[in-house]
Amino acid sequence: MSNVNALREKQLGNDAYRKRDFPTAISHYENAVSLDPNELTFHSNIAAVHYEMRQYEKCVHACEIAVEVGRSNRADFKLVAKAMSRMGSAYRKLGNLAAAKNILEKALTEHRTPEAKQALSEVEKEIKLETEKLYQNPEIAEEEKNRGNERFKAGDFSTAIKHYSEATRRNPHDPKLFSNRAACYTKLLSFDLALKDCDMCIQLDPTFLKAFLRKGKVLQGMGAQARAMEVYTRALDLDPNCNEAVEGYRACAIQQQANKDPEEVRRRAMADPEIQQIMADPAMRMILEQMQSDPKALGEHMQNPAIASKIMKLREAGLVSVSYR
């Protein structure tokens, strides 16, 4: 009879729970436990009420009892997993993300549900964000930026990127750090990465003129003249007297027109004494031939500032096509 009475108390508790009469619900669930202490669901229901009342520590305690009772009485593993998942949610509300992650992982070993997997994924993201936040330090970011500036001036763009990247981790809210790294990526012809950093700059500060100018240069390097012109237009919206934006827009317009006639592109380029000197250099001709047969060689050559500068000059003149990833 006690089991029947316990189930009756559980049903009364459920009715009160649905009405959000939580004190009455707990009273009935506790009565059910006193009548049948070996039933996991009664303890689990008490935990659910505590969770709704934002009594998260009591929820955790009730879940612990539910899991212990379930294990002792060989309850359905799905019910054990559900109690563990609720415990994980309570730990998360308490800000104990490590405990939440631990118990949610255990819940998934009992029974994998989309809800538990999603909860674990969210907790892991929160842990990552918390770790990144603790790692932030504007003073160290400034030191790393200065080291990056030194390496950039020396033409050591790869090392500069490492310093700027560390600076962005230390202070992810400073658009100048992403702008500096974008400049390095541009020098190495990693246009996609440069473009990503430019977009981050603009996201952090929509009025950051240099970000638009740098993005325009990147798009020019990618051969996306029309998109570059749009970006230069946005730069001019910020500063109508910006000569760099005006010149960039004009250069894109000229390039677009020249691209319609490849022979005209070559004729214009070869009229430039600097281009003539580069093309007359046997070493550069060998490098260009190697780039055609082995695109991977580009990355190695771009580590040399002198060679990188010449390749960029040929690229801007439209004489070489550089692939990017």
Structure description:
There is one protein chain. The chain has 19 helices and no strands. The longest helix has 22 residues, at 114-135. The radius of gyration is 32 Å and the shape is elongated. The protein is 81% helix and 0% strand. The protein has helices at residues 2-18, 22-35, 40-52, 56-72, 77-94, 97-110, 114-135, 138-153, 157-170, 175-187, 191-204, 209-221, 225-238, 243-258, 262-270, 273-280, 282-293, 297-301, 305-317. The chain has 325 residues and is an all-alpha fold. Among the domains are: 2-135, Serine Threonine Protein Phosphatase 5, Tetratricopeptide repeat (Alpha Horseshoe); 272-325, 434 Repressor (Amino-terminal Domain), CATH 1.10.260.100.
Number of strands: 0
Helical stretch count? 19
User: Could you say what the CATH topology of the domain at 2-135 is called?
Assistant: Serine Threonine Protein Phosphatase 5, Tetratricopeptide repeat
Q: What general form does the structure show?
A: elongated
**Helical proportion, percent range:** over 70%
Mean pLDDT figure: 89
Considering the protein shown, what is the CATH homologous superfamily of the domain at 2-135?
Tetratricopeptide repeat domain
The main pleated sheet reads as: none
> What is the straight-line distance between the termini?
73 Å
Portion in beta strands: under 5%
List keywords for this structure.
434 Repressor (Amino-terminal Domain); mainly alpha; 325 residues
